[in-house]
């Protein structure tokens, strides 16, 4: 079973497709059966027959319902992570609740899911295997019986537990305890959190733990003093209370010339604002690498690969370049052997 990673922009569309397929299961089977009987070409009829045979299997129905359960739990988190304006604190709480719901599904959801799948199979006339018998693995036309592995063990351990464990592992890899702590501490500079009190200790902890080399020991002590002065000022300043994000706070410091008074706070804000850019760029680079450097293009050198990745990652900017501007750029370069 090939599940997408949490945060994939296609997650919601996949969930809608799976829900629609469950609702229109028998209609889809009837359409495939008609193609089998009346298809234009043998290959078309053969593909329809293979799809119809797969859909009428218990394993297909089980995986379909399992994917729906997992995607329903993770969809809210995926939607939150795709928003351009992030509410970091609520997003981290959503990560925690998503992990808890997935773990609860793994621990307590097997019997409920199995009952739901069996009920669906009875309505749709899909054969339900005996869960106590030995599981027979099918690879193409060949069949191989796995010793001491029951049908229930296969579906519960090899599919159900494995799929949920994969999702939990992905969430733990992307949102480790250290990364979550970094984001939670960074929220202390969000003006929307000041209603709970300006957390000077959390910001000092943020610098000591995550940015120790960006501030000298003397600057760390001076930063605490600047934060105390800043806390006293924002409680009296109505304009500061109206700010809606860390980026607006940074702009406000520049416009009011307060960055000259609080230079260390301004430096800390810039470090926090560059955090999403650095992590997102790295994620995009690794994702693009699997698309650009394929099996047929695996001998490209590093410089050419880097250029291809830049063009692919920043393709919205690259679309703005015209062919004439590129030709003119090459023409204006020095040491050209021939005129273009």
TrEMBL record:
GO terms for molecular function: protein dimerization activity. Signal peptide: none annotated. InterPro entries: AtLOH3-like, HATC_C_dom, RNaseH-like_sf. It comes from the Eukaryota. Transmembrane segments: none annotated. Residues 247-316 form the HAT C-terminal dimerisation domain. Pfam families: Dimer_Tnp_hAT. This is HAT C-terminal dimerisation domain-containing protein.
